[in-house]
Amino acid sequence: MKKTISGIRGIFGEDLNLKDVLQFCNNFSSLIKSKKCAIGMDTRPSGAMIKDTASAALMKNGIDVFNLGLAPTPVIFRESRFYQAGIVISSSHNPIEWNGMKFIIDGRGINENELPEILKNQEISISEFGTEKNISTSYIEDAKKIIGDIENKPKIAVDIGGGAAKDFAPKLLTEIGCQVQTINENLDNSSRGPDPTTDGLSELILASTKNEIGFAFDLDGDRLVVVRNGKKQIPDVTLGLGVAKSLELGYKNFVLSIDTSVSIEKFIKESGGTVNRSKVGEANVIDMMLQTKAQAGGEGSSGGFILPEFNFCRDGILTSGLISSMLGNSNFKEILDFMERYQQIREKIEVDSEFHDKVIEDIRDKFSKEYSDADTLDGIKGIIDEDSWVLIRKSNTEDIIRVSAESNDKVKCENIIKDTLELVKQSYEKIR
After folding, report:
1. Do residues 214 and 205 lie in contact, with contact meaning Cβ atoms separated by under 8 Å?
2. pLDDT in tens, 50-89
3. I want to staple 380 with a disulfide (CB 3.0 to 4.6 A). Which of 4, 77, 364, 375 is the partner?
4. What is the reported pTM?
């Protein structure tokens, strides 16, 4: 089981059980001062059981539950702003047998100070039980106000991946003026896995050749991957296009996670904007946004663009609309051309979680000797030159260490990744 600010996640029935759900939701109740909480789930088979158990734990502690039923993460985050708290029943991009809970306070994911409150056992005294009410959402209407109408009626292919975006993304895109082709609408006959950032997206790639652009969502709708002209784009392109739209709207202050492409940072600065870097992880990006009063930004590795005025989370559904509104204008092509100068590779290597810190500490010493600048904000990032870097960090959600590298030279980037993966492997074998 994983217990991080990204949420509680595990294989349902093995290391995550209904008893765990009761415990964590009971503890989360102590953070809900309004005594109100929105809740919703993605399409995982275990979702309904977990949602009902979570709701029971909240109501037992006097919390009124506002049930959105089947809903994407961005919708639940948006709705939680009206109730102070929220719970998303999902494990995002993890395999189908996994599930979990994302906890929301004041419209944002929990931070590192709040996580311990959810993990420690608490007895909560109440005067009366809470109630449960099914609710609807104005998410689509609110998103339309941000995006506006699209007059050129672009043709869009949307790959739902059997996830919770199915009743939201196609409808939003249609209502703002797009012509939409939907594939993989249902989970039981989806041709791909839950994570579009790692899947080949073969069906969407084919569909994109007959449309101006293709969008692929993960199961809970916060991740978005772009496919264009029969080619799957790296996740950073999603963020880059969102950033380009933000600059078009006049926004200047951005936060990017430490593993986001340097091309996006350079594009922002050349356009007169400023950039702060945060640790990887949606909650860390949001915390930095709040501290710096940033207007936009996000996390390149997850294809996650964040627009704080609308949602304190990665919002793949809103982003698909914002990108669609750019089709055909110069800003769309400009950011893509700029980012194509750089090659970025992301890999991972299996390492038991108990050894993550020791492996990274061992490599930190080697990076400090090898590179003139070694950034320890999150894991260890070696700055090779102004156009090249490598980052090693532990995963918050899996028993792996992630290795990312970027350069404006493809062969150089491939060699950096190859050498660094071997370095992690050797360090792990030495330590365990």
Report:
1. yes
2. 999 999 999 999 999 999 999 999 999 999 999 999 999 9
3. 364
4. 0.92
Domain ranges of the chain: 2-134, 150-339, 344-431
Would you state the pLDDT for residue 121?
86
150: which 2 tokens? 């699209």
pLDDT at 371 over 90: no
Q: Indicate the DSSP class of residue 211.
A: S
Apex 2 CA angle, 217 and 190, nearest 5 = 25
- Strand order, beta sheet including 224-228: 179-183, 155-159, 213-217, 224-228, 231-232
Within 10 A of 138 (CB to CB), how many other CB atoms are there?
13
To the nearest 10°, report the CA torsion of 216, 269, 395, 201. 20
Q: Residues 266-281: what's their mean pLDDT? A: 95
Q: What is the spatial distance between Cα 404 and Cα 388, in angstroms, rounded to a whole number? A: 11
- The Cα diameter of the chain in Å comes to 66
Q: What is d(CA 259, CA 375) in angstroms, rounded to the nearest whole number?
A: 11
At how many degrees (to 10) do helices 330-339 and 262-270 cross?
130
- What mean pLDDT comes out for the span 294-319? 95
What CATH superfamily classification does 2-134 receive? Alpha-D-Glucose-1,6-Bisphosphate, subunit A, domain 3 (3.40.120.10)
**Which CATH entry fits the domain spanning 150-339: 3.50.50.60, 3.40.1790.10, 3.40.120.10, 2.130.10.150?**
3.40.120.10
